[in-house]
Amino acid sequence: MGTKLIIDTDPGVDDAFAIALAAVSADVELLGVTTVFGNVPLASTTANARRLLQLCGRPDVPVAAGAARPLVHRNPHTAAFVHGADGLSGRSSTLPEATRPLESGDAVSLLVSLLEAADEPVTIAPIGPLTNIAALLAAHPGVREKIARIVIMGGGVERGNSTAAAEFNIWSDPEAARRVLAEDDVPCALVPLDITHRCAIDRDWLAKLAASGPLGATLEGLTADYTAYYSRVLGFDGMVMHDAVAVAEAISPGILRTEPYPVNVDCGAGPARGMTVVDRRRLSRDDPEASPGRTVEVAVDTDLGTLRQFVLDRLSGGPR
């Protein structure tokens, strides 16, 4: 069937592209979607995820709601000023109502049941704050062997966005991020801002998506607030599809080039809170100054044309 995948998400315009990318790919077995607070509050992220799956013709995919707040400290704000008050540029009402009921259990319960039922290891793609994933690993260590890898959109090597140092998903719950990235041993790939910004798409790309059919037109219609924000950031009429870049790597391992580095997360109260500290010194393990713990595969490069075309083809119903 292809990649067995679970997405943990906080839709969000770029999340919408990522969910659709997985939902319409014939080589993906999308087992479930779990939701978390983040770009907008949990009630909106959950409603958006369910409606997006309905748009993609995937009412078979279960959705469960997860954490409504971080593990320790409440985060100061959402990203509604980027994504719109409803998370989808004020256009969530253009999506069809979901026909499948929300799962009665929470996100961690669904993750456990899907992993335990899987006949082979599953890829998890967390593209929001890592609260649900940290809770899963803490409370259910026995599921680790059922996880092939965790492909995370988050962090920044050279930059932040919520602050000068921190990317939004990691900054939203640094304690959870540290648990997953630095304190556990499940294989992880980190897709940071540095690479997602390089994969930004322009108005011509979005016009091709809109012209591709009903799905593409609806997705493009969700981008107004998001592109208005990112056009100022980028300096051209376009947007950054952060989460779709990570899900592309989850679907097609190797579409991003990664390098192994120790990664830590600043959980202090100062200006670096939420910063991903990526140790690129390439010290040997026996060096007394080497960072302790395991390494994380950090995405550092890709063929930009190939990546953009991969996402466009999938969302447009093109080559699989």
Automatic annotation (TrEMBL):
Keywords: Glycosidase, Hydrolase. Residues 5-303 form the Inosine/uridine-preferring nucleoside hydrolase domain. This is Nucleoside hydrolase. It comes from the Bacteria. InterPro entries: Inosine/uridine_hydrolase_dom (IPR001910), IUNH (IPR023186), Ribo_hydro-like (IPR036452). One of its GO terms (molecular function) is hydrolase activity. It comes from Amycolatopsis samaneae.
